[in-house]
Amino acid sequence: MKRNSRLSLALHTLSHMAQEPGRLRTSAAIAAHAGTNPVVVRRVLGTLRKAGLLRSQGGAAGGWSLARPAHQITLADVYLALDERLVAGPPPGEEAADCAFESGLQAHVAHILAEVEDSLVTRLRETSIDDIGPGG
Amino acid sequence: MKRNSRLSLALHTLSHMAQEPGRLRTSAAIAAHAGTNPVVVRRVLGTLRKAGLLRSQGGAAGGWSLARPAHQITLADVYLALDERLVAGPPPGEEAADCAFESGLQAHVAHILAEVEDSLVTRLRETSIDDIGPGG
DNA sequence: GCGACCGCAACGTACGCAGTTACGGATGAA
DNA sequence: TTCATCCGTAACTGCGTACGTTGCGGTCGC
Fold first, then answer.
1. What global pTM score does this model have?
2. Chain B residue with Cα closest to A95
3. Chain B residue closest to A108 (CA)?
4. Would you write out chain A's pLDDT as a tens digit for each of its 136 residues?
């Protein structure tokens, strides 16, 4: 897991939650299972909470749980929530190209990447987190 | 250019070469135009040379030139030569998943990513480096 | 009040990559 | 032959990113 570690952690955790939606899980337990540490889990899962995919409960008997039914959470939801952008290049904060080739090139490539990004999200939207189990 | 800087440099340089295929360009001149330095240019262009896209000539009147006609060099050739893998996740050198969910998940996601990667390469193959000019 | 848990901020560390310097090899002109 | 020019490569530095760790405060249940 060099890259995509956030996405992997998120999908892995959500897959488990989809099996027992009612159960609360602490960040410590999740971290132990995923081989990382609780702060990292809270960072990643906190992003998903802001996106409305998860709920966190403070206090003694606190923990994490799904914010809506598992079949209503798709891989695309997770991907977009984490703002991973596997495909896209740098955000449009680039300096104007000094050379005419640059603008044409960047526009052309950016257009292709945007198309591919869309197709990726479309494919991810076809699978929900309870479609994924030990069988694949 | 945070990421993709190698790809940008390569495409930019090849686009210019496509306009004057016979002209030899030194890494210093290319670096000056691209706003980087000669060693970086040689590193990137050296990869393209190994892939058979460019020729380099040592000595006093040396420099870089296209190894084959511009219309026979596609964006996909450059992309694959640089081994950029914009889409793909980690290479298959991962440790076996300790959890049954992991294997199913990784297989599922990897399958989708492979499909998207293929579609990206297919799209890139439709454009050659002399199709790109100041007009786009 | 106390323990367990989340939320957040601040640091240290590891890694990749661009940039830089340096040296050797190859080529062509004087 | 000598020299300048240019490529090829290795080694080092600096920077940005992300993970890992620690610490402190807030919240909830006992």
1. 0.90
2. B1
3. B136
4. 334 789 999 999 999 999 999 999 999 999 999 999 999 999 999 999 999 999 999 999 999 999 999 999 999 999 999 988 777 665 554 455 678 877 788 889 989 999 999 999 999 999 999 998 665 4
CB-based burial label for A62 (10 Å; 0-12, 13-18, 19+): exposed
Residues of A with a Cβ under 8 Å from any B Cβ are 1-4, 8, 11-12, 15-16, 33, 75, 86-87, 89-90, 94, 99-109, 112-113, 115-116, 119-120, 123-124, 127, 132-136
The predicted-structure confidence for B13-67, as pLDDT tens digits, reads as follows 999 999 999 999 999 999 999 999 999 999 999 999 999 999 999 999 999 999 9
Counting one residue from chain A and one from chain B, the pairs whose CB atoms sit within 8 A come to 107
Cα dist. B63→B6, B10, B40 in Å?
Answer: 19, 15, 15
- Two structure tokens written together for A87: 């495909």
Q: Is A135 close to B2, i.e. CB distance below 8 A?
A: no
Q: What is the CA radius of gyration of chain B?
A: 18
Q: Residue B90 has what pLDDT?
A: 57
Check A123 against B102: CB less than 8 A apart: no
Measuring CA to CA, which residue among A86, A9, A94, A10 is closest to residue A49? A10
Distance CA B87, CA A75 (A): 16
CB contact under 8 A, A1 and B90: yes
Neighbouring C-alpha atoms within 13 Å toward the C-beta of A81: 24
- Put simply, the answer to whether B105 touches A15 (Cβ < 8 Å) is yes
